[in-house]
Each structure stands twice: as C-alpha cells, then as structure tokens.
Amino acid sequence: MSDTNDCVIEVGEVIVPALNEQPAVKNDRAASNTLAEVSSFISEWTPFGLVTSYYVFSVCLYMYCSNGLIAIFWFIYMCTNFYIAGSTVLEAFFSITPCREARSIVDQAQEKSWLFPTAHNKLPVLDLIIVAYLPNEQSIIVDRAFYALEQLDYPTDKIRINIVYNTPTPMEPLETTLHRLPLRYAHARVIKVPNSTSKADNLNYFFTLETGSDIIAIYDCDHYPHPNAPRWAAERFMAEPDVDVVQGRCIVFNSDDTILTSMIAVEFDKIYAVSHPGRSTMWGFGLFCGSNGYWRSSLLRNLKMDDSMLTEDIDSALRAFSKGAKTVHDLNVTSYELAPTTIHAFWKQRLRWAQGWAQASMRHLKMVYNGVQDPVREEHAKRSFTARFGVLSLLLIRETSYYLVTQYTCLVLSFLIVKFPSSGADLWKLVYFQYPVSQWLFIVSVVCLVATLWITNQVKSEFVSRRMVILFSVLYPFYLILNATIGLYGHARQLVRYSSWNPTARK
What is the spatial distance between Cα 83 and Cα 506, in angstroms, rounded to a whole number? Predict the structure, then answer.
C-alpha cells in the first residue's frame, strides 16, 4: 500500500515503504536542531564571555583595593615576571653551546666536500610522512610532494616519501594527480586514509602499515625540509644510539608577507633556535614539536597519537619522555614553513595550541613527582630532580604565567583609570616605578629580555632581518599580552569542553 506522497528508503537490496513523517515528528526534529544550534552557540561564545568577565572583574577589583594590597600584588607580579625573564635568558645562554656545535659540524662537512660519515648503504631506512588535509591544503600539496621527491638528498632506496591525506569529499583531478606519483617516482607512496577527521587519524593509520623503516619523519604539508635535513637527522641517530627522537629547527619563510608573519618569524627563531635547545641543555630533556621531527619507528608505532588531544604531537612527546625516551634538538635539521598571514588564522591556530597545551599539562604534570613508566632503556629508568623541575616549569609555571601577565596588565589598567597621568613622565613612573623595589625588578627583567633578543639576533634565519628583530622587541610586551589572553581563552575552552579541531589555513 503506497501513496504518491510516501517516501522510499533503500536498505541493502530491500525496498521498504515509509509512512509520511507526522507533524509532531517534524516539530521534534526542528526543536532538536534548534537546541543543537543553541548549544553550539553557547559552547562557542562562553569562553569569550569568561575571558571578558575575567578582565572586567580584575580591573574593577584593583580599582577598589587599598594601597597596601596593591603594593603586595605589584610586588608578586614583578617578582614572577622577573623569574620568567630570568628563566628565559638562562635558556638563551644555554643555547649558545648547541648553536656553536651545530655551526662547527656544518663547517667540518663543508671542508670534506659534504662527505657525510655514514656510507649510503649503511643509512637507516626512512619513512618521511607528509600529512595533509586536502580541502585546507589542496593548493600546496602537489608542490610540496614534488619538492620532497626531487630535492631531498637521501638515497632513494633508503627513503620513502609518504603522502598521507584525508578529505571529506572527493577532489578531482587533484587526487588522481597524487595517486599517479608512484608511477613516476619509485620511492613515492600515496595513502588516502578512510574515515579520517584529523592529523592523528592519518598518522595512526600509517602506523598500522608494515613498512620496515628504521626511522619515521613527520612533516606538516606546508613544510619545505632542507635538502640535507633527513641526512643530518640520520647521522645524529647513527652517532648517538641512545637518541630516540630528533627534533629539527622550523623556520618561517613568508616573513615578509605582513607585520604578523614577521613577528611570528622572529618568535620561531627565538623558540626553535634559542628556547628549545637551551631548555634541552638546561633541564635535560627535549620535545617533539609536531613537524620536522624524526622518531625511531618502534617507539612511535608503540606510542601512536591520541586523537582525543588537540595537540596530539605535544602529548606524544610528553608520553615519550614519561617512558624515558631521549629527544634532542638538532639545529642542522632545518625545515621551512608558512606562518598564518591573517589575525583570524593566527587566532584559530594559537587557540588550538593553547587548549591543547592545557590538556597536555593536566595529563602529564604528574611527571613532576612520579618515576619513569616502562622505560625505553634501563639507563633512563630514573628521572632527575633537574628534569622534574623542568617539567614543573614547562607545564605548570608556563600555564600559570598567563594569569600573571594578564593580572599585571589589569593592575596597570586600573592605575590608568583611577590615577590617569597628566604627562609621559607620570605615566612612566606610574606603570613601572610605583614602588622602589619594582625599579630593580623591572630593570633586571628588561636586561634579561634584551639579552635574549640579542642572542636570537645572533642565530636568526636568513628570512629574518635586524629590522624585524627590532620591531619584535618594541611590540613584544603587547604580543606577550595577546598570547597570554589566548592562553586564558584556551583554558576557558577546556573548561567548557570545547572540542572542535580547527586546521590552520594555508595558501
């Protein structure tokens, strides 16, 4: 029995007639959709409301505090800023030795006409993975694939370039072009991951394949690895058998696009050429940072990626460290990547990083007090006091610093509202020299910042000019406040369990 208005639902090969949807069912579905939209709206905007309320409440609180309380808060914030600046400059000084060693190794290679120590037939087998999300990276994936296949200086019988991608909808003729690459290049492999919704899904699928590789390298799709990067990484593994992960230096190559990209380029030089190698030397451990990282295959296949984490790379790095794996930062293993060119893209990227770091910090802070779990090697079965304090600094103090920076900002804003200065001299005295002890704390903090930026200038990449370093130095206080606000926003998102994965826009 059928009506011309009835619809038909196919189930396998069986045709089942369906009755007209009743008005009550339609109303329930509409109500359900409306409720879902409202819930999504609340989830999206609640963090904004929380952060805005945090700023408004803090400024108002300081406006009504007594001078005695203000003095206490001021002293606390200046002391903590001094600690952060001091730790940063110590990391910078500790980075000088790794930088000199990296340059010395390059000089030695040049003197030997780039004849590397390990013979081609002795090199480890390398799987280099380029991870891509096609709707977002469709304009760059073919270019990066050809570059990796043609420009990397590594024996083709020892390396495989794996293009591992996902896409919610078919994309032709792009996918056909990609899948024809193995016909032209014997060391190419193209894998479309079924049912994937993230980078973690793509990588975990690849880890299920038996490829016989000794080392796995992971690159985001926007990267241009330096032609010698795989070779430098392989030589590091060959020279130091106890190394489990080699993290290279990432350099922003579109620094001239906008003021924002120039700021990010200097920031990346400060992070990858100064902070990471300095922290590794100072605290005794390094971190895989998501791209341009080389892993021993057995370790990475065992750990995999946790797709419930927004920054699955940091989580995997901390899980590796929790097992006693040794990660080193090699400044000769360089790769060039794109920085976001718009505030919107930057905001989305950093919010994902901030929430991901908050997740990872909560999960792994226990490493401060517990021992190595299932050590990778027996000699790494104990975690030193220095490493424990380094974890405390990296996870807890770094996350807390967002509140210290923003509270100091709110305190200064309250001064400007209640005691607005009538001249520049009054403003300078009000902001920085409200209390005598703050003069010394402020001056020492500035000296630490200048020293850090001076060291960064010494190791800046070819895409960063001295003008960019000066601009970064001038704008750094505002950039620091912006990043601290993003950190708070990440915490607020984690509080409301915001879980959308927003890939970084590429051009």
Answer: 37
Predicted local distance difference test score (pLDDT) of residue 17: 46
Both structure tokens of 400: 């807390």
The answer to whether 99 touches 273, Cβ cutoff 8 Å, is yes
My answer on whether 406 and 356 are in the same domain is: no
- Helix (H) / strand (E) containing 8: strand 7-11
Same domain flag for 448 and 368: no
Phi, psi at 247, each rounded to 5°:
-100, 125
% of the chain exceeding 70 in pLDDT? 87
What is the rounded CA–CA span in Å between residue 86 and residue 452?
Answer: 10
- Give 291: exposed, middle or buried? Use CB within 10 Å, 0-12, 13-18, 19+: buried
Handedness of CA 294, 269, 491, 221 (dihedral sign): negative
Q: Which residue has the higher pLDDT, 350 or 504?
A: 350
Q: Rounded to 10 degrees, what is the CA torsion of 79, 84, 88, 90?
A: 50
Average pLDDT over residues 202-226: 95
102 lies in a domain? no
* Percent of the chain clearing pLDDT 90 (strictly above): 61
Task: Let me know whether 154 and 266 are in one domain.
Answer: yes
> Which of 363, 391, 419 finishes a domain?
391
Q: What is the pLDDT of residues 388-420, one digit of tens each?
A: 999 999 999 999 999 999 998 998 888 888 877
